[in-house]
Amino acid sequence: AWATSAPEAQFARGVLWRVTRNSKPAGYVFGTIHVADPRLASLPAPVAEAFDTTRSLTVEFTAGAYSRERFLEAAMFLDQQTLEDKIGARDFERVVEHLAPIGLSREFVLKLKPWGVLVNLRNPRSVARTPVPTLDEQLYARARARRLALHTMENVEEQVFTFDEFPMDSQVALLRDALAHQAELAEMTERTLEAYLARDLDAIWRVQEDYVRRHPGIAPHNAVFMKRVITDRSVVMAFRMQRQLRYGNAFVALGALHLYGAKGVLALLEQDGYRVHRVY
User: pLDDT tens digits, the chain, 280 residues: what are they?
Assistant: First the structure.
């Protein structure tokens, strides 16, 4: 992901937060990172302990067979447009080369929208040698083992809307930038993971902000991306998680950047009368 100027450094550190309302336990909010990496092969002990006291799991989204098919359909041009038309022959050849290792044919790639390529380029599983379950997958497995209720904060149409209504000029600009700076973005991904392991949300934001400072041409497109993918969705998720928090003892998991700053879900929960306390 990319970032714009940082919000004020509110909730700058910590990935697990206890939530109360009127001094009663509402549950926990846990910031995850959606990557498969051996350093995340098991849930941190404080997270596992908190999870074991809760009665439900609420996540951003779960992909069933229909939603995967719907998302894939949305990522494709269904008319005469092609990716090559949008980004030019040279960059198109680079995309074909990058996506070949995950089994995407030239014909398939030709019909992908730029955002469909970006989602695939940024999928860490495509380069993982040994499959490691993500933190989200570990939480699902524990929830199933305990037969907990599983709730989501978004549906597939909202996920599609986030990307598919993204202005085409910004899609193209962000894709060209990703192709031009693959090594730098890989290094940025590693620094982001290190910041996450240190539970330093402010550092995660700064990693992204530094990249934009080095590549100012991407700043306006990145601002659109951050508003759609982080800020707007944080508002929706802060509202929807409250249904389970009101019942009490809920466990909510979502991307860690949604926790950070004055526009993050923790600040929004406090505005709605909840109290949040850092646990880990």
Answer: 444 444 457 899 999 999 999 999 999 999 999 999 999 999 999 999 999 999 999 999 998 999 999 999 999 999 999 999 999 999 999 999 999 998 999 999 999 999 999 998 865 444 445 679 999 999 999 999 999 999 999 999 999 999 999 999 999 999 999 999 999 999 999 999 999 999 999 999 999 999 999 999 999 999 999 999 999 999 999 999 999 999 999 999 999 999 999 999 999 999 999 999 999 9
**Is the separation of the CB atoms in 111 and 83 below 8 Å?**
yes
Q: In angstroms, rounded to a whole number, what is the distance separating the alpha carbons of residues 72 and 70?
A: 5
pTM above threshold 0.85: yes
CA dihedral over 53, 55, 61, 63, signed as positive or negative: positive
The full DSSP string for the chain is: ----SPPP-TT-B-SEEEEEETTEEEEEEEEE-----GGGSS--HHHHHHHTT-SEEEES----HHHHHHHHHHTB--SS--HHHHH-HHHHHHHHHHHGGGT--HHHHHTB-HHHHHHHHT-GGGG-SS----HHHHHHHHHHHTT-EEEES--HHHHHHHHHTS-HHHHHHHHHHHHHTHHHHHHHHHHHHHHHHTTBHHHHHHHHHHHHHH-GGGHHHHHHHHIIIIIHHHHHHHHHTHHHHHHSSEEEEEEGGGTSSTTSHHHHHHHTT-EEEE--
